[in-house]
Design a protein that fits this description.
heterodimer, A: about 425 residues, alpha/beta, seven-stranded mixed beta sheet, B: about 325 residues, mainly alpha, 2 strands, about 70% helix
Chain lengths: ~425, ~325
């Protein structure tokens, strides 16, 4: 623990010394001449080790822009905080919202459209991968700008790989099976998956790789009970039987991996500092997940920048928010050091990012293949039955894959129908 | 009997004060009344109203009266609410049945032990009471790290001893077992202190008289201690039932919000309070959440009513 804190501290100091260097610096927007000093409130949910990196970017922004001062607040229980702030009319000027939450927060009157603000700030859709950009569009209006992509990532124990005589990380189903098989012996597990988070996300990724989708395009129906869904679940059960252990609880794979007895795990890119580098006693490496099915697809989340609803809208504050958002995108290389992939193509394709490992390796195999659920309000509610179904299958409490997926889809469809009634009124912003 | 004896006194008092409202007693209860109305009475009433609406406080344009729809959903088989609600309520009921006897008997036993002239008994009292001061989140996380299967404290030792290492948190019935042990460890101290205080209030003369009459240890316990403790035990049983009904943090932290998942949906240890929270503040369906809360409240009232009846009839 102390060791990891020390490493983080050293990293932080190095970053401060190297300074925050913007990668792209053309046509930077300016605050209108009649605006004097502007105070902005900026909220985010970065309570982990990534928070200080964001703090650095904000400090650098404040130093560069004497007429705009941004105050950053990091909140836990994030959406509850946003809801209560909305009720009391104290929403911040800029807020981070997860891609799959954008539509819900729009319909709950927390976010407002930002088409004009981003136009003035010089932000355009072609600078982002299509899927992550589309996540910010609800009802034909734009409500959010992608800051980053955090994909499912493969972590492997390079020491065990070397002992087993394996060259590099597997990238195909065949290579994966060979590697996981070779690494499974005695007390060691070649690949470990649990019955808890993020097993549903892993299932979803395989579902897309086998050509399926979680929902139909307009988000009115669950479609995971397809042939692709059965294939994906069967692959997981086979992998569990062949390489892993039955019925593991949440985080068991992380704890075992850190114990040095597991060859490969799949978890979010946010686990990078936890299970690689100084976080482990062996050589832990992060890289892109392999392609198991015929289509490339990678599960991912994305932090998106939004402008919450304000009682008194003010062109100066809006312009300042646009400038700030643009600055965050331009400087997302610093944010990438915290272990996220910049959503902005220009930053992600820069030489500076290419030098950043393992993020650039992961980005190469993931950023273009990410998928997001349809932007309809309450879509995350409809995942709850799938979470339960996959968890029940992986814990051995259910055995009939098709029946379990059908049942989950039926319940999800009821939830989607309820949501259509609940959210039948268009948002007032 | 007592009523007829009191009547004349009431009449005299009423006669003396003639129509003048005596506001002094109301002043005494006023401070509590204000807080009660503001933080319990009014929200209770508002919750009842909300339960008849489709309601989200951030979407006034979408709030509409739906009659008893939120309630009928709970009682109609096949709806999403029906299966998750009754599953979670059943889980909480199971937990109450398992935890309450343990949370009465163990603290009673500890209190009896610590009521003797044990050397260092104050230290033991402090040790047994200590876990109760921890917050539910701390207890939940401690529970997780003790029972988790890969390198958790318990399995680490069991493996060294060569004993089987069950998946404490992801298989049944071990998930309940882990939650129960954690809860008993956490809250026994509080019940113990209350019982201990009551034990110390039992006059020693009663035990002396019983001893002189030749009563054994068990007879003294059965005919002196238990009857003397009855009012306190009633109190403890009622607050323990209510506390167990409010189970939330232990499954939230220990079993990944109520796992292991069952075939057909629903977690095996998902408590009703977590379900109400999810319905109201994750799905933002506050009307439906309020209806669930009211059904639970009615059940609690019925349980408490029978509790009082049961213990009163023995007096």
């Amino acid at each position: 623990m102390l060791k990891r804190a020390l490493v983080l501290l050293v990293c932080a100091i190095l970053l401060v010394l190297s300074g925050v260097v913007p990668v792209i610096a053309q046509d930077v927007p300016q605050l209108p001449a009649d605006c004097e000093s502007v105070q902005l409130e900026y909220w985010n949910p970065f309570t982990g080790p990534d928070g200080p990196f964001m703090g650095q970017i904000v400090d650098a922004f404040n130093a560069d822009n004497p007429n705009i001062q941004v105050t950053m607040t990091t909140q836990t229980e994030y959406y509850t905080q946003l809801s209560t702030a909305a009720a009391s009319g104290t929403l911040p000027d800029v807020a981070i919202v997860h891609a799959d939450q954008v539509a819900t927060q729009v319909y709950r009157n927390i976010l407002r459209p930002i088409d004009t603000v981003i136009e003035e700030a010089g932000i355009a859709g072609e600078d982002f991968p299509e899927a992550v950009w589309n996540a910010g569009e609800v009802n034909g209006s734009r409500y959010s700008i992608p800051l980053d992509i955090h994909p499912m990532t493969m972590f492997y124990n390079a020491d065990l790989f070397a002992e087993a005589g394996l060259e590099g990380p597997p990238t195909t189903a065949e290579e994966f099976a060979a590697a996981a098989g070779a690494l499974t012996s005695g007390d060691n597990n070649g690949f470990m998956i649990t019955a808890g988070f993020p097993i549903r996300q892993i299932f979803e990724m395989l579902l897309y790789q086998y050509g399926g989708t979680s929902f139909n395009e307009d988000g009115t129906e669950a479609t995971w009970n397809s042939e692709a869904g059965v294939q994906a679940a069967q692959w997981l059960l086979d992998a569990q039987a062949n390489y892993s252990q039955p019925n593991l609880e949440v985080d068991a794979e992380l704890n075992s991996f850190k114990g040095g007895t597991v060859g490969i795990i799949w978890n979010g890119i946010w686990q990078t500092t936890n299970v690689t580098g100084e976080g482990v006693f062996f050589n832990g490496i992060a890289t892109a997940v392999p392609q198991i099915g015929p289509n490339p697809a990678v599960w991912a989340g994305s932090h998106q920048l939004t402008l919450p609803v304000q009682g008194d809208e003010d062109t100066c504050r809006d312009a300042a928010a646009g400038i700030f958002i643009r600055y965050l995108l331009d400087n997302s290389l610093t944010w990438a050091s915290a272990g996220q992939l910049p959503a902005n193509n220009v930053v992600r394709e820069s030489d500076e990012f290419a030098a950043l490992q393992p993020q650039s390796d992961i980005a190469a195999g993931s950023a273009e293949y990410v998928f997001f659920p349809p932007s309809v309000p309450g879509i995350t509610d409809a995942y709850a039955p799938l979470d339960e179904a996959i968890s029940a299958l992986m814990s051995g409490n259910a055995t009939d894959i098709q029946a379990e997926l059908d049942n989950a889809a039926e319940r999800a469809n009821q939830i989607l129908e309820q949501n259509r009634q609940t959210y039948s009124e268009a948002p007032s912003n | 009997m007592t009523i007829t004896a009191r009547e004349p006194i009431v009449a005299v008092v009423a006669g003396q004060k003639k129509k003048r409202l005596d506001w002094v007693p109301y002043l005494f209860i006023l401070p509590h009344l204000i807080f009660f109305v503001a933080f319990a009475g009014f929200p209770f009433f508002l919750g009842l109203v909300i339960s008849f609406f489709q309601y989200d406080y951030l979407r006034p344009e979408a709030n509409r009266f739906v009659g008893i729809q939120n309630y009928t959903n709970l009682f109609t088989p096949g709806t999403v609410e029906n299966s998750v609600f009754w599953n979670a309520l059943g889980n909480t009921g199971e937990f109450v049945l398992m935890s309450v006897p343990l949370l009465i008997i163990i603290p009673l036993f500890l209190a009896l032990l610590l009521n003797t002239n044990l050397p260092g008994k104050n230290l033991y009292r402090a040790i047994y009471f200590a876990p109760w001061v921890l917050s539910s989140a701390v207890v939940g996380l401690l529970g997780f790290w003790i029972f988790q299967s890969q390198g958790g404290l318990l399995n680490y030792f069991l493996r060294d001893l060569g004993i089987g290492t069950p998946r404490w948190l992801s298989s049944m019935p071990w998930a309940w077992f882990s939650i129960l042990i954690t809860t008993v460890w956490w809250t026994s101290g509080f019940n113990m202190i209350i019982i201990l205080a009551a034990l110390q209030n039992i006059p020693a003369a009663l035990y002396e008289a019983a001893s002189i009459d030749g009563a054994t240890w068990w007879q003294r316990f059965r005919y002196v201690t238990i009857p003397q403790l009855r009012p306190v035990l009633v109190f403890i049983i009622i607050i323990t039932i209510i506390a167990s009904f409010n189970l939330f943090a232990q499954p939230f932290f220990m079993t990944d919000s109520g796992g292991p998942a069952q075939s057909g949906g629903g977690g095996s240890t998902e408590p009703i309070m977590l379900r109400i929270y999810n319905e109201s503040f994750v799905r933002n369906r506050m009307g439906s959440g309020a209806a669930m809360a009211f059904v639970v409240a009615v059940i609690m009232m019925v349980v408490s009513f029978f509790n009082f009846r049961l213990f009163r009839s023995r007096e």
